[in-house]
Amino acid sequence: MQAQLPDFETQLRLVFDSSPSLVFFKDEELNYTTINSAMAAFLGKPAEELIGTSDRELYSAEVANQLEDLDRQALQGGRVEVPIMRPSQGSLLTFSA
Questions:
Q1: According to a count of CB atoms within 10 Å of the terminal CB, is the N or C end of the chain lower?
Q2: How far apart, in whole angstroms, are the C-alpha atoms of residue 31 and residue 93?
Q3: H or E segment and range at residue 74
Q4: How far apart, in whole angstroms, are the C-alpha atoms of residue 82 and residue 42?
């Protein structure tokens, strides 16, 4: 008898969560819909708490406005690079999309 392999969605989720890259998806209202483990750790909260939230709930208004502008640019197919502060630790990182 052959062992049952995980389905494609399960395999994809394993790759998604094991990636050291910060990976997330947002909906049209720019709320987080999916967050990998690295992104949740970066934001300092469990992924389950972050689903449905927006950057306005995680960052200052100034930073949230900048991130929203960049999200809209990325959604329109533009290349985005952004330095961003880690909310829980104040460290600065640069992201590309």
A1: N
A2: 21
A3: helix 61-75
A4: 15
Residues 58, 87 contacting (CB under 8 angstroms) = yes
Q: For residue 23, what are its two tokens? A: 């990976």
Rounded Cα–Cα distance for residues 45 and 9 (Å): 24
Which residue type does 75 have? L
Global pTM? 0.73
Contact 4, 21 (CB under 8 A): no
Asked if residue 85 lies in contact with residue 78, where contact means CB atoms within 8 angstroms, the answer is no
First to last CA, the chain: 44
- Structure tokens that stand for 70 in this block: 């960049």
Per-residue pLDDT of 53-70, as tens digits, reads 999 999 889 888 988 988
- Written as six digits, the tokens of 87 are 């909310």
